[in-house]
Amino acid sequence: MKLTENFSLHEMIKSETAARQGLDNTPGDAVIANLKLLAENILQPVRTAYGRGIKVNSGYRSPDVNAAVGGSRTSDHTRGLAADIEIPGVANYDLAKYIADNFKFTQIILEFYTPGIPDSGWVHVSYDPANLKCQTLTAMRENGKTVYKPGLIA
Q: Is 153 exposed, middle or buried (0-12, 13-18, 19+ CB in 10 A)?
């Protein structure tokens, strides 16, 4: 099933963790509708702007899959509202900044980016039309723990 011209439901629900552990990662209709909104409002326009494919590292996660990967119990991934993405050849900081500067969104997290290493980390982007708060955060490790700092830090 196509969500947009360049994004399929299959790529938005694919999970190596689910396959490895035999977990069901099949979304219901409400989640599919959310994935379609995410693809229409963020992913497809970004792909069109860059003119190159977007790698979806993680899209929808069923509650079991989310628990298996150590995700937050309140993760937008479990509702089909978020994706972790990269564009090969584009620095993840630049991708996060482009989305932040050009779109309405719920949250962008520049996750585990190392300045000077353009393809380090990834970009988490969420889109909930009822909560377009445009929050930007940077996730990093400090003293062995993940901390979230406001803004996009390069």
A: middle
Give this prediction's pTM.
Answer: 0.95
Rounded CA gap, 59 and 11, in Å? 8
For residue 135, the cross-strand partners are 107
Within a 10 A sphere around the Cβ of 26, how many other Cβ atoms?
10
pLDDT tens digit sequence for 96-137: 999 999 999 999 999 999 989 999 999 999 999 999 999 999
Chain position carrying tokens 């979304």? 27
Closest among 16, 20, 18 to 65, alpha carbons compared? 18
Q: How many domains does the chain have?
A: 1
Residue 140 located in a structural domain: yes
